[in-house]
Write a structure and sequence with these properties.
Elements: E1 8-14, E2 17-24, E3 29-33, H1 47-50, E4 55-59, H2 77-91, E5 96-101, H3 103-114, E6 119-125, H4 134-142, H5 145-152, H6 159-168, H7 180-185, H8 193-202, H9 204-213, E7 223-228, H10 236-245, E8 249-254, H11 261-264, H12 266-278
Parallel strand pairs: 3-4, 3-5, 5-6, 6-7, 7-8
Antiparallel strand pairs: 1-2, 2-4
Helix pairs in contact: 2-3
């Protein structure tokens, strides 16, 4: 295996917090930001291919995955985007291309709005956005005492429920490979994880309003939007509205695919990302 395909697991300290990440490849840096209930290993089917053209960093975001848990950390989009900019400082990255999925896609957009000079091109997989109401409805439920009680018990849900939830994220569940469920569940039981995820959910409404206010700052940022037409989490119509706001955006719709296109059709997504970043 060449050095470009050697995946290393490393750790860096940001604001006194230990952040875990996987890194591979050489060339222009590409930072991968995962979604909720996930961590950097969600990109395991993409990292090696992307590393042929870029130095790829798959981060376990703050309070998630193998990164350190810190109680009371500000979970808002703005605070987390600023923290990611400081993570880039710690990694020695003046600028990078950013890929993000779902909530990680919203973080990528907020990072580009607040730190425009730090972001080159964006790749957004069904990013949470102000034009989709699904997240706001779920957030209102999990902000209630019953929702918070249920949310804290997600790690203890029976495996049958976890598998059903994962299947719902796929357009074609037969594409789920062995080990996928563990990637989304193995770190949820670490104390502090669910509290942080619930804090993200509580700020969802205000985060989407703030993101909408800064959309004009993203008008000139080159962005590849990748969506599945069977996405039940972030609606496809919101992709078209988002693309109108981002004047240099290209929308790629994958037929028969759900909310995890980079998992469900990794080869297609890897080729699309490489083409986008090299043009």
């Amino acid at each position: 295996m060449s050095a470009a395909l050697n995946i290393r697991e490393e750790e860096v300290v940001v604001d006194g917090i230990a952040v875990h990440y996987r890194v591979a490849g050489t060339g222009r840096p590409l930072l991968l930001l995962h979604g909720l209930l996930a961590d950097g290993q969600t990109w395991r089917r993409n990292l090696k291919d992307l590393a042929r053209h870029s130095t790829v960093y798959a981060v376990d975001l703050f309070n998630m995955g193998k990164s350190q848990r810190v109680a009371g950390l500000d979970a808002s989009l703005e605070a987390t985007a600023d923290r990611i900019a400081r993570l880039m400082d710690s990694l020695g990255l003046d600028e990078a291309d950013i890929a993000g999925h779902s909530h990680g896609g919203a973080l990528a957009m907020m990072l580009a709005a607040r730190h425009t000079h730090r972001v080159g091109k964006l790749v957004l997989f069904a990013p949470a956005n102000p034009f989709c109401g699904h997240g706001a409805r779920n957030a209102r439920f999990f902000a209630t005492p019953l929702g918070a009680w249920l949310g804290r018990r997600v790690p203890q849900w029976p495996g049958l429920l976890h598998r059903a939830a994962l299947r719902r994220m796929y357009g074609e569940p037969s594409r789920i490979i062995d080990g996928t469920l563990a990637c989304y569940t193995e770190h949820l039981s670490i104390p502090g994880t669910m509290d942080h995820l619930l804090a993200i959910v509580r700020s969802w409404g205000s985060d989407m309003r703030r993101l909408k206010k800064v959309m004009n700052q993203l008008a000139d940022v080159p962005a590849l939007l990748i969506w599945g037409d069977r996405d039940r989490a972030v609606s496809l119509p919101s992709a078209q509205l988002l693309a109108k706001e981002m004047h240099h955006a290209e929308l790629l719709v994958l037929h028969g695919v759900g909310h995890l296109p980079f998992e469900e059709q990794p080869e297609v997504c890897n080729r699309a990302i490489a083409r986008w970043l090299q043009n």
